[in-house]
UniProtKB/TrEMBL annotation:
Its main location: membrane. It is found in: Cell membrane. InterPro entries: CHR_Transporter (IPR052518), Chromate_transpt (IPR003370). The keyword Transmembrane helix applies. Keywords: Cell membrane, Membrane, Transmembrane, Transmembrane helix. Pfam families: Chromate_transp. The chain crosses the membrane at residues 12-31, 52-74, 80-101, 113-136, 148-174. Belongs to the chromate ion transporter (CHR) (TC 2.A.51) family. It is a multi-pass membrane protein. This is Chromate transporter. It comes from Undibacterium hunanense.
Length: 177
């Protein structure tokens, strides 16, 4: 693809990723999307990507909102709409196809193998996403410590993650990080 059609290039990339992220896992594809739009194509900066991701995660609604914001940064409203559709349509069609197959073959070995495969893949994507966001515009080692501490708190307690997000925002406003 040439750089004359960034939306087509981005939509094809997102469509392929959406096929691997059925069920909402697109948020775990953030490292690949970041690499594509920031490092490879230079359409947005790492700060813009991190901000779009943070805004989308803080806003109510589906986790894939950051894709819409990245599309908007690249090509305005058209970009937001087209990138959102590029993510939703392929994975929806795949899901509907698998559901129709699964209802006819509920307990096959293939069904069990596919189900057992998704857990480690999801964990790997989640770790890659965490690594990416500790590297984007990382101010200091304190940021890494706070990120690790927040992850431990979320995993070990029933504290609402929104409280940690708010604490991080306050720390950032007070320039503690």
């Amino acid at each position: 693809m040439d750089d004359q059609s960034p939306m087509l290039d981005l939509c094809l990339h997102l469509s392929l990723l959406s096929m691997m992220a059925v069920g909402g896992g697109l948020v775990m594809m953030a490292p690949d999307i970041s690499h594509f739009v920031v490092t490879e194509k230079h359409w947005v900066t790492s700060a813009q990507f991190a901000s779009a991701y943070a805004i989308a995660q803080a806003a109510p609604g589906p986790n894939l909102l950051f894709i819409s914001l990245v599309g908007w940064l690249i090509a305005g409203w058209t970009g937001a709409i087209v990138t959102t559709l590029a993510v939703i349509i392929p994975s929806t069609l795949l899901t509907l196809s698998v559901i129709s197959l699964k209802t006819s073959n509920l307990n096959t070995r293939l069904t069990a193998a596919v189900r057992d495969t998704f857990a480690p893949i999801s964990i790997g994507f989640l770790l890659a996403t965490a690594c990416l966001f500790t590297q984007l515009d990382n101010a200091s080692w304190r940021t890494d410590v706070i990120t690790l501490l927040a992850a431990v708190i979320v995993l070990r307690s029933k504290l609402n993650p929104v409280i940690l997000i708010a604490a991080g925002a306050i720390a950032g406003m007070l320039h503690i990080l």
